[in-house]
Amino acid sequence: MKSKTTLRLILIGLLSFILGWFLHGTIRPSNHTKNTQVINAFIDTLSQADTIKSNNSAHIVSGHFVLAKSNCAGFNFINHDIVLWTNEIACNDPDTLKIRWLSDSTFMTRSTLRINESCPPRVDIYKVVSFDGKHLNLKSIWTGWNDAKDEDLELLKQPN
User: What is the three-class DSSP state of 55?
Assistant: First the structure.
C-alpha cells in the first residue's frame, strides 16, 4: 500500500514537471518580443529625417572636437571604429570608445574598458543635429534609468 502511494506521488510529480516544462513558454508572454519592438521603435525615431545638409555624417565627421566653453573635454574621431572621449578633469587620459553608426546621423559609443565582469559596458547614443566642418552639434540621447532630458552638445573642431 505504501509503495503504491509513493509511486503515484512520483508519477504525479513527474507529470507536473513535464507539463510545466512544456507549457511555461506558451502561458507566460515572451519579454523578448516586447523588448525588440521597443528597441526597433526607438531606432526608428532616431532615424527620422533631420537637419543635416549632407545627410551622411558617418563618412564626413572626423577629427578632434572640443565642447564649447571647455578646455579639453570632447571627442576625437580617430576612424570609423574608434573615438576618444576626454573629460575636463583628465585632459591627458581620454577614454577609448568603440563607435557604431546606427544611421547616417545617429551613432552609439561603447566603452572598451571593462570595469566589472558582471556589468554591461557603458553605452551612449548621439544624434548629429548639424555639422559644417568646423562646428558639430550633437544631441546626447539619455539612456539612463531616471527621467533626465536629452542634452545638446556644441563642439568646435580643433586644429591638428
Answer: coil
The span from the CA of 112 to the CA of 6, in Å, is 57
Query: What amino acid occupies position 37?
Result: Q
96 C-beta neighbours (distance < 10 Å), count: 14
The model's pTM is: 0.64
Rounded CA gap, 135 and 66, in Å?
A: 10
All three cell numbers of 111? 566603452
Contacts of 48 (CB under 8 A, 6+ apart): none
Query: pLDDT tens across 27-41, in order?
Result: 555 444 455 555 555
Distance from CA of residue 145 to its chain's centroid?
13
With beta carbons less than 8 A apart as the criterion, state whether 62 and 128 touch.
no
